[in-house]
Amino acid sequence: MKQPAKEFRLLESVSDFTQHFGFPSPVHPLLAVIDLEQTRHLIPQTMPALRQLYIITLKKNLKGLIQYGRRAYDFNAGVLAFYAPGQLCESNTSVDISELSGWMVVFHPDLLHKYPLGKKITTYGFFSYQVHEALHLAAREEEMLDGLVANIRRECEQPIDAFSQDVLVSQLDVLLSYANRFYHRQFLTRRPAEHDLLTRFEEQLTAYFTLEGEHPLPTVQYFADALHVSPAYLSDMLRALTGQNTQQHIHQALINKAKQLLLGTSLTINETAFQLGFEYPQYFTRLFKSKTGLTPAAFRFSVQ
């Protein structure tokens, strides 16, 4: 029997968000900074909410575990989490918020539309970490972000003038740039888990290209699903540890396999392309030449 669709509330504006959760009404129509100490008395909402907003939140001193993606975190220490528009969120009523502290920056995508940040924000992988992972802040990093958010709060509480949006967006840009730096630091300092993921990725990549017969070209999504992480997280982790993203690793493995087939079999160039999963041989030739400087035929001839 088909299950009924889960009901949820659609939050399309900053005002919708603050009203739904019982936060103070925003001064600025497109951005709000919420002091979480002032929300300890609020009763958590039980209805799921679909937020068409960007949210950056630093939560501390929570008693219990909070689900972020598919991992539960202890938010007793400073942990930063990011949410992009279109993500569904449910409150965890079992968490004790009596000593909650920290802050939340909520802003509408319209705030960024005419600025370069509107495009750049889509490149930040931490907004699409559907499975991994919250950002664990060092004390100095937390203090730095607290200062940046305090500046944003002061600006959004000022009367709106011709410069307000420029200033707010520039401050958000700095905040996100620091968050990006701290995420890459985390990839380097939390090595055991990331090295384990790297090892498992390499095993998956090797296994895929040892499959016999024709099979589709592997995708970034394929390996992300196999490793139970998001594509963005996988690419960021690989880039931090190896200098190459997931697609570059796939292409390198693909070229290595192509060389084996070109030198170790009598397959034609077209047959080699089909064996590797290319639907059109000319795409294989184009990729091979871009990576090696030679066409497949020229490469085969050069080593004879």
From TrEMBL:
Amino-acid biosynthesis found in the keyword field: no
A Pfam family hit: HTH_18
Gene3D superfamilies in the cross-refs: Homeodomain-like
A GO MF label: sequence-specific DNA binding
Chain ranges of the HTH araC/xylS-type domain: 203-302
Biological classification of the source: Bacteria, Pseudomonadati, Bacteroidota, Cytophagia, Cytophagales
Protein name, as recorded: AraC family transcriptional regulator
This protein's record includes keyword Cell cycle: no
Domain of life: Bacteria
Keywords from the named record: DNA-binding, Transcription, Transcription regulation
